[in-house]
Amino acid sequence: MSVLVHLRTSYFKRKERMNQSRIIIKGGKVVNEDCSAISDVYIENGHIIDVGSNLEIPAGVTVIDATDRLVIPGGIDTHTHMELAFMGTKAVDDFHTGTKAALAGGTTMIMDFVIPQRGVSLLEAFDWWKDTADPKVCCDYSLHVAVTWWSDKVKMEMETLAKEKGVNSFKMFMAYKDVFMLQDHELYAAFSQCKQIGAIAQVHAENGDLIVEGAKKMLSLGITGPEGHELCRPEEVEAEATQRAITIAHAVNCPLYVVHVMSKSAAKVVSSARREGRVVFGEPIAAGLGTDGTHCWHKDWAHAAKFIMGPPLRPDPSTPAFLMDLLANDDLSVTGTDHCTFSVCQKALGKDDFTKIPNGVNGVEDRMSVIWEKGVHSGKMDENRFVAVTSSNAAKIFNMYPQKGRIAKGSDADVVIWDPKATRRISAVTHHQAVDYNIFEGMECHGVPVVTISRGKVVYERGQLSAHPGQGRFIPRQPYAEFVYKRVQQRDQVGQPRPVIRIPYDGDVISTY
Ligand code: URP
Ligand code: ZN
Ligand code: ZN
Ligand code: ZN
């Protein structure tokens, strides 16, 4: 056979495979969060139909050999901001490029944020953001909604979102003063409403007042470069807000989810709260697990600016390994990326003033490999914990398990064939993210997604993407996730304070003025 004929044949074979709606994955090690077993996986029309050994191969199905590979649930990135308009510009990865990049990295679902401006209806913002995402997404997605202001209308709309729109998670900002930040009494009200409607409260935990004062101080000292960003909001600014959020959530017995846990101090606060029995979950992100804030002190301004995000990557270089230890041991629960990408020319809006550098880093394509490298290849976690922190726990917390986050009969066919021994070097030259750099540039990662299956279709295979905009679906989520609310409800039943029953006092009472 000539080379051309061979190339053509394999092209058509690949094309045929990519159009297939019936797939059997043979001989791989199926890894769930609780066990691993060599099994075949049969997929039809977007769902997993069967998992077992030596499954018969029906006629006409596409066969994928997964010998010596792992077959894992597709990754769920709990935290992205595709095409977010923020700090005077717009994130460069949109729902199309961002979800394509996700698939190339072994992530088959993203959870993005609706962030209404103050005064804007949450319902209108939700509809608008969903309409923006729907025609572009290449993988499934879901939406958290941010509560950036407080009123009776916001309260009512949260209920409608939970009952009718498939939203069971709301993010409250304790930073971005005068933009998104809520006061403590508003946090109390928002958390109470989350509890009332069976949602989980999420917090961006940083003390926004202290950040404003710290920034003024740094600028007055002549510190205008990227290092000023961390210097004005050191670890305790994050740890204090984290503790405050936990205290407020506990006061109303509302489950809490701390997004982007970036420092050792904040992680310790989450960890000790969990040990005291609080229903709180901490989400480290790929950036915080894979790199650190020392880059922000780099002499090259552009290099330093690429690493600016809030809360900041910490200059203590032992931070990523510490966060990974806590993630491995269930002190932290789940991973996202906070993927919110601004190219260098956008970061340059803050070339003379660090407070104007758009906050955000990449990660949606890199998360799975970074976590395998730093978590599993390093020996801190096993393959099952890897699955727990990259998909299953997210599916449980946000109430879409076992539809997502599990390889099992009846689950959605979002599946990744993972080669734990293969390596790849992360680079902006080869990545699929639209941003013009990569904060993990040059990192060699063991653990490579070789095939990604989304909604039962092969959408990525050995470097070739065949995903189409609009192919993904919005995944609605019901309130009262058992994984989160069972404990909360149990406490409500048995743990309410009760008055002491007494014989009424019938003695003298002095008269008041
Ligand atoms: O720097 C960040 N994190 N940008 C996105 C907005 C947010 O706070 O998550
Ligand atoms: Zn945030
Ligand atoms: Zn650097
Ligand atoms: Zn974010």
From TrEMBL:
Q: Which Gene3D superfamilies does this one have? A: Metal-dependent hydrolases (3.20.20.140), Urease, subunit C, domain 1 (2.30.40.10)
Matching entries from CDD domains are given as: D-HYD
- Residues found modified as N6-carboxylysine: 171
Report the PTM annotation. Carbamylation allows a single lysine to coordinate two divalent metal cations.
Q: Which domain of life does the protein's organism represent?
A: Eukaryota
Domain named Amidohydrolase-related: which ranges? 70-459
InterPro entries, per the entry: Amidohydro-rel (IPR006680), Hydantoinase/dihydroPyrase (IPR011778), Metal-dep_hydrolase_composite (IPR011059), Metal_Hydrolase (IPR032466), Metallo-dep_Hydrolases_sf (IPR050378)
One Pfam family assigned to this protein is Amidohydro_1
- Protein family per UniProt: Belongs to the metallo-dependent hydrolases superfamily. Hydantoinase/dihydropyrimidinase family.
- What PANTHER family does UniProt report for this protein, alphabetically? DIHYDROPYRIMIDINASE, HYDRANTOINASE/DIHYDROPYRIMIDINASE FAMILY MEMBER
**Designated name of the protein:** Amidohydrolase-related domain-containing protein
